[in-house]
Amino acid sequence: MPVLPFGDKNPSISSTAFVSPQATIVGDVEIGEKASIWPGAVIRGDYASVRIGEQTCIQDSVVIHAHEEDNAAIIGGKTVIGSASVLHGVYVGDSANIGEGCVVFDGATLGEGVLLTPGSIVPANVVIPPRSLNSGAPASQVRELSREEVEKQTYRAEIVAQVFQKLRNWQLVT
């Protein structure tokens, strides 16, 4: 897996995290305990930091980028970021679920327990309230989520983390 410095910044990856050999991690990036970074993911802390919380799942072909000095990308714990999503300089709270193919632009804030449906687009600097279901382009709130629905999102992230703990020692077949 390419783990590359950017200037004097080097990625920091927990020893319990799973990072696919096909993922790319660059610069000021911190990946928490039992997080999983799937094939094709690109996480770039070029000019600002990227922080990924414990037991968070970054699926296939996700791009997370912090390209402005004052605009870090912070992804909370027990969060799932769906395949082919793109997040630029955003804050995503714990236990969120970002559907496949979403785009979240600079300065957006997604509160704890947010559910963003696949293909949704969150414009720059938009604040999405905690524990809400949001959908569309641009994304808008559909309804509040129940405590049970947020717990289900948390549980899903925990299950994925358990699976990848078993697979951490994948060997490439040649």
Task: Give a written overview of the molecule.
This protein is mostly beta strands. It is built from 1 helix and 20 strands. It has one helix spanning 147-167, and strands spanning 3-4, 12-13, 18-19, 24-31, 36-37, 42-52, 57-58, 63-65, 73-75, 80-81, 86-88, 91-92, 97-98, 103-104, 109-110, 115-116, 121-122, 127-128, 132-136, 139-144. β19 and β20 form a beta hairpin. The chain is globular. The two termini are 16 Å apart. 44% of the residues are buried.
The first-level CATH class name: Mainly Beta
Fraction of residues in β-strands: 35-45%
- The 3D shape can be described as globular
What is the CATH homologous superfamily assignment?
Hexapeptide repeat proteins
- What is the H/E order? EEEEEEEEEEEEEEEEEEEEH
The average pLDDT is 92
Provide a concise account of the structure shown.
The chain is mostly beta strands.
Write the layout of secondary structure elements.
Layout: E1 3-4, E2 12-13, E3 18-19, E4 24-31, E5 36-37, E6 42-52, E7 57-58, E8 63-65, E9 73-75, E10 80-81, E11 86-88, E12 91-92, E13 97-98, E14 103-104, E15 109-110, E16 115-116, E17 121-122, E18 127-128, E19 132-136, E20 139-144, H1 147-167
Parallel strand pairs: 1-4, 2-4, 3-5, 4-6, 5-7, 6-8, 6-9, 7-10, 8-11, 9-12, 10-13, 11-14, 12-15, 13-16, 14-17, 15-18, 16-19
Antiparallel strand pairs: 19-20
Main attributes?
mainly beta; UDP N-Acetylglucosamine Acyltransferase, domain 1; 174 residues
